[in-house]
Amino acid sequence: MSRLASVRLAGELDLSNVSSLRAKLAAIDGPAVVDLSDVTYLDSAALNELAVLRRRVGSVALVVGSPNIRRTLEIVGFHGVFRIVTDPAEL
């Protein structure tokens, strides 16, 4: 991937702060990297916003440090539509 937009997220991503997440992701207008390394929890509202971003811009890579976050992404099938890496250097 060349020239990627990038956003780093942290903490809990859930319905209580989904509007802030939506605003951050709305600023992305092309292929992107979303760094979830510092995310401790994400719910279906946050997962939906990531899916909306993927549909809108096409190519999105997710940087995931937490095994629990990675497992959540795998359970919902995101490993099939997002590139999921542990280290940004893998991109």
For the structure shown, list the relevant keywords.
four-stranded parallel sheet; 91 residues; alpha/beta; 3 helices; 4 strands; single chain
Give a summary of the structure in a few sentences.
The protein is an alpha/beta fold. It is built from three helices and four strands, in the order βαβαβαβ.
What does this structure look like?
The chain is of the alpha/beta class. Helix content is 35%, strand content 30%. The protein has 3 helices and 4 strands. The protein has a 4-stranded parallel β-sheet with strand order 1-2-3-4. α1 packs parallel to α2. The radius of gyration is 12 Å and the shape is globular. 22% of the residues are buried.
Mean pLDDT rating: 95
Shape: globular
* Alpha plus pi helix count: 3
- Helix amount: 25-40%
Largest sheet: 4 strands, parallel
Strand content: 25-35%
First CA to last CA: what distance? 7 Å
Task: Describe the strand arrangement of the main beta sheet, using strand numbers.
Answer: 1-2-3-4
The count of strands amounts to 4
- Computed CA radius of gyration, to the nearest angstrom: 12 Å
- Given as residue ranges, the uncertain stretches (5+ residues, pLDDT < 50) are none
Structural class: alpha/beta
What is the H/E order? EHEHEHE
